[in-house]
Amino acid sequence: MKRSTCPKNISMKECYLYKKLSGDKIQCQTCAHQCVILSKQRGLCGIRVNIDGELYLLTYSRAIAENIDPIEKKPFFHFLPGTLSLSVAAMGCNFRCDNCQNWDISQTPKQMGSPAEALAKAGAALPPEKIVERAIENDCPSISYTYTEPTVFLEYALDTMKLAKEKGLKNCWVSNGFMTKETLEMVAPYLDAVNVDLKFFDDGLYQKHCGGRLQPVLDNLKTIKKLGVWLEITTLIIPTLSDSEKMFKQIAKFIKTELGPETPWHVSRFSSYLSWKLQNLPDTPTEKVEAAYQIGKEIGLKYVYSGNIASENSENTFCPKCGALNIKRNGYRVKRHDKNGRCFRCSEDLNLIL
Where do the H-state alpha helices sit in the chain? Predict the structure, then answer.
């Protein structure tokens, strides 16, 4: 774990999920790493620190990013389509993905020598009640916890989610899916939708390129469905890593069999320019994205979407029964033709959360 000094005079919040071990050692139980952390050290995320045998979150009420985004940008295509979402993030992540686009805010805490350094660059003060106020002021029916991994700022996210729920707002996570079952069960009553990055279908690639493991992600995806939270899946198609037809088939079959054919699958084009450590790879050929789309449809997924490519129909929602175009998307401009979540032509349920 990351060694650091632990001053007592910085604003932090005690973590919700951890276990005390012998001496001053503790085990974090928030994400699937379940780091064993010695006194004055931090977990792999860089923002949870052991102070005298108690675990504290360094980034509570400190937002490193705040924006108003179209909900489709997350991406959610079947959850409150055509609406805006107040998007917030705290610094840090439990992964170290080579392809990360937000590495400057996700990885920075791991490079800092002390909690004081991390806190100094943790972003602006933005308490949970203020996040909810800003969502309401800007006519955002939802709050998205995104850009970095919401699992690692659980306490900040969950306190905000509870207040949001009281005000009638929806809560959305954009996540790598590498949390503990305890975390999922804690947030589930307040979590309305989650988009999980299913990065690979290979444990070795997860370990090498993300610093994580595949099985906890697969287990959590199944748990999310059982808990009744709306789920969408995103796979970034990276040349030489996640661009094989074999992997496309494995992912599509898992979604259909274990999560249900109504679960949307977003297959997205990789850009080397935006990548943290994979700038040596080429951008994904459009043909690879189209191949993943076709495989998903052939296997029986009702909704497959192609991201970051110039294709007229790649992000539109068609009725899975009669094929009618029910939601037209042009960038983030959305035009709906459905009738209260059902196909305007044949009344088929389009699996929309409205």
Answer: 103-106, 115-120, 128-137, 154-166, 181-187, 203-210, 214-226, 245-254, 286-299
